[in-house]
# Entry
Amino acid sequence: MTHNVYYTSMDNAFGYDIEPLRDHFINNIFTKNEFIPKIQFCPAFNDYVKNVFIIKSTCHYEIEWDGKNISSPLYNQEFFNKNILVRNAEVGLLSYIIPHPLFYSDSEDLNMSQEFPYFHDNNITNSAYVMPGIFNIGKHIPRPVELSVKFKRPGSIVINEGDALFYVRFHTTDKVIFKKFVMTNKLLTFLNDNLYIRKYTKNYKPLQWWYDLVKRHNYKKFFLKEIKDNLL
# Structure
């Protein structure tokens, strides 16, 4: 059995590759002069890293937190407003949007989680806590994911082009086949209008609420038609 995973960037700025974590471990964790340990043949290790992929930054950026305010010395306020979502400035909690990837599946049941990039050493992992999360990309409205972090201490987070932001794990032992598509205005408007209501509800809607919404209105048929009609 295989799972089709359709992916895009919300603004169609395709600048990121999806690299298997196992390949990174074998090719980069050990130098050419080191003996790659038998862990690469360990079934427990291989089962753990199966269908785990790296999402990398597509540009260079710096974010600063002085203990009260979140800002950036780079570019301009327009760039900051578009790509930084300040969750709580008092505790240094924010989301970094770029590259704003979105994953969706025609499978009826496929969970995807975001994870801390534990096989990478960069300024993100040293300066911040990376927030994890999980939802079902076969049942939810197609929704983008982003790097959500909390500063460990006042200072700066330097994000270099190519830095690992987080990992995505597809919770299946089956093969995952990636298919790239172009985000359309029709789909983007639908998603923004539906996700917009989150800003004006008193309480967070549980994931099951969204799953039931998609099923009740047969939205998945619309999603898949729009996606498949715009495959690259």
User: Anything to note?
Assistant: The two ends are 23 Å apart (CA to CA).
